[in-house]
Amino acid sequence: MKASLDVLLDVQKNYKQLLKKMTRIHTLTIAEWQLLQNVLDGNDTQTELVKKTKLDVSTLSRQLSKLVEKNLLSIKKMGEKPMARKKYLYQITDQGRTALNEMNADFEKMSSELFSQWTNEEQNLLKILLNRLNTSFERIES
């Protein structure tokens, strides 16, 4: 039997592979899907998105620009203070909302299929154990 962390690596690889396949269908990347969700959730400035995603500013900026190019996000300049750093407000477009809704629906369908043979008790136990494992990782990082 494989060690727990080895199994987690396998699960992560399978999960990422499925997500890549699903996001490709909607002409998104996993990062773009997550960014669209964050903007929809009200994190609509680069400062808020950096805090939420913990991405490097330049990486985030490139990803946001790509979403604007794809017409999934619109961008609006905020304020006109001289010598101040430019601030932008990002908003999800109708096209972005459609792509996000379709991707989220496919994600929910995949999740339902994945756990269709699991009882509620088994699903809850998995959540408890994964949360406990995550807490242990956070303690090690501190």
TrEMBL record:
Q: What is this protein called?
A: MarR family transcriptional regulator
**Which PANTHER family does this chain map to?**
MARR-FAMILY TRANSCRIPTIONAL REGULATOR, TRANSCRIPTIONAL REGULATOR, MARR FAMILY
Q: Which InterPro entries match?
A: HTH_MarR-typ, MarR/SlyA-like, WH-like_DNA-bd_sf, WH_DNA-bd_sf
Against PROSITE patterns, the record matches this protein to: HTH_MARR_2
Q: Which Gene3D superfamilies match?
A: Winged helix-like DNA-binding domain superfamily/Winged helix DNA-binding domain (1.10.10.10)
Origin organism is Ligilactobacillus acidipiscis
Top-rank taxon of the source lineage equals Bacteria
SUPFAM superfamilies for this protein: Winged helix' DNA-binding domain
Report the residue ranges that make up the HTH marR-type domain in this protein. 1-135
Alphabetical GO biological process terms: response to stress
Q: Which terms in the Gene Ontology molecular function aspect does this entry carry?
A: DNA-binding transcription factor activity
